[in-house]
Amino acid sequence: MENSTEVVSFVLSAYGNIGNLKYLYFIIILLWYSSICATNTILIVVIYKDRGLHEPMYLLLGNLFLNEIYISTSLYPLLLSQMFSDTHEVTLPWCFLQMFCFYIFGCVQLCNLTAMAYDRYVCICYPLHYNVFMSNRRVVKIILLVWIYSFTSYMFSFSFVIPLTFCGNVIDKVFCDQQSVIKLACSVSALTSMSDLFIGFMSLIIPLSLISVSYIKILWVCLIVSKGSKQKVLTTCTPQIVSLSNIFVGVAFHFVGSRLDIYYLPDKVRIILSIYVHILQPMITPFMYGLYLPKIRQSCKRFLFDRK
What we know:
This protein has helices at residues 21-49, 56-73, 76-82, 92-125, 130-133, 136-158, 178-183, 190-193, 195-222, 227-259, 267-274, 276-292, 294-305, and strands at residues 9-12, 89-91, 170-171. It is mainly α and 308 residues long.
C-alpha cells in the first residue's frame, strides 16, 4: 500500500507485458478507431447536407452518431498511448477525465435512444399529431435536455469520487473505471461505494423503462395494423432494438465485472468483456442505421458516388 499523499497516478495493470505484439495491437486499434470516426462522420455530414433528412428522427440520429465519436475518443486514444508505455500509468486528472467522459457519453447514448423510441411511438401511434409533438425545434430542445440530464446525473455520482484519497494505485483494467477507483480509496462511505449504482439507475434503468413502455405500446399497435404497416414499423424499429440489446449486454458485462471478482476468466476475455460495448457499438450504430434505413442508405449513395 502507498501513502495517500503519494498517489498521483494509477497503473492500468491489465495491459501487462505484450512484447512485440504491441505494434500489431496498435495498428488494429488505430484502424478500428479511424473507421469508427470516418463512418460516423460521413453519416453526420450526409444528414447535415441532405435537407430531406432534416427531420426529427434523423436529427436524433445525428446526435447519436456524434456521441459514438465522443465515447470512442474517451477510450481509444488512451489504449493507443498505453501500447508503447512501459509503466502503463495515467495521472489522476486524466483518469478522472476519462471516467467523466465515459459515463456521461454512455448516459447520453441511452437517453438519446429513449428520445428516438418516443419519436417512433408518436409517429406510429399518433401519426396525425406527429408534426405537432415532434417538430425540429422541439427535437433540438430534447437533444439539449439529453445532454443536461446526462451531465447532472453523473456529476452527482462523480462528486463522491473527487474528494477521495487513495492508498493504492493499481487498476486491473485497461481504462479508468469508477468502481475500480473507489476500491483504491483509503476509506469509503456507504454512499460513495454505491455511487455507480446511482448513475446506473439514472442512465440505464430509467431510460430502459421508458423505452420499454414506448415499444410495448408500439407492439400493441402492430397487432392491429395491416401487414404493410407492420413491415414499415419493423424497418424503423429494428436498428434501435439491435442497438439496445447490444448496449444492455455490454453494460451488464461492465457492471458485473466492476462489482464482482471474475478472475477465474482468462485475462484477455475479461479485458474484451469490460470494453465490449465500446468496441462494437460505435460501429453497429452507423451500419445499422446507415445501411438499414432506406432514406439514409439512398442519401449515402448519392453523397459518396453521385458527386457530379
